[in-house]
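Q: Structure for this?
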Amino acid sequence: MVTTDLSISIDGFAAGPRQSAEKPFGDGKVDALIRWMFEDGEASAAELAGIGGAGSYIMGRNMFGPDRGSFDLSWTGWWGDTPPYGAPVFVLSHHERESFELAGGTSFTFVNGIRPAFDLAVAAAQAAGSDRVAIAGGATTVNQFLAAGLIDELRLHISPVVLGSGERLFDRVPSVDLEQVSSRATSLVTHQVYRVLR
Amino acid sequence: MVTTDLSISIDGFAAGPRQSAEKPFGDGKVDALIRWMFEDGEASAAELAGIGGAGSYIMGRNMFGPDRGSFDLSWTGWWGDTPPYGAPVFVLSHHERESFELAGGTSFTFVNGIRPAFDLAVAAAQAAGSDRVAIAGGATTVNQFLAAGLIDELRLHISPVVLGSGERLFDRVPSVDLEQVSSRATSLVTHQVYRVLR
């Protein structure tokens, strides 16, 4: 099963415009997007836990690090010495870079193209005895996988804010039928789980 | 209080592209947008009832009727002889047309500009002893009122479908802080109520 967890505004943005090393979520009211993760931890404990636990992960180039045209080899991601993934992470990138491993079982492997990344992630999850691959983000990467029909379950964490601009989930994704699997709200966020129908 | 009820897809569309007299909601999987109104009536009875009951209504030109460049005076709206509004309805239009009244207390008055329509609707609601004006739609009209800061409560009925194109809520609306007032889901729809913060 391929899942994705994405925190979005009610107008569908997962990040604001002008993302940078200093502002990984870009400009605007972007703190409101992930406020639930910090202020709502107990009420949303199940959803927070569900973001982890996959057998492998796939993420876009910008989610791994700020794009400076090529890789700064001293950059090992936003997450410090012990990233929370604890599993193989496949980073989509046109730039070549050697794989490396950090503490806690997280490795980063750089792959050009969503299909090769998908195949490697499925194999890595299976090798770890897991049936779940998580598309970690950002929205542009999720949109590519949605458009390719490669996502089974969308877990959207919808925050009460209109961002107005930025990186939008579903941008240029063709029409898709969904089944609403569950819906649960706290005062800060609504957690929606949708199954993608084929 | 100014409210709006809008049925939208998870990607924020309230209608598909190419709306016409034959297809008022346009092309695409638009039946999925309002399926909850017909198949989920009992489970969503409170939300359905809440769409009505305002002291007056404002709607866009396209919600009143298909745009043929001017008014076809034999056209009295999509709703037959006894429209469900039972209150004054103000239709935004650049074309002039005399007001008229239908059975059940619904009248249609044609007004050029959102501010004049807003003032007339507030006065009409007050005259009827109501404190509520409803922006009936479509999304383009709701967006104009949102951008002007004239909506207090957003009631979104989110259906499990990705439409991919059409008329989008929040299109060109600047950033807005919301408070999540309530959230309730049935198997077919999630009902979100947001208060607009100023």
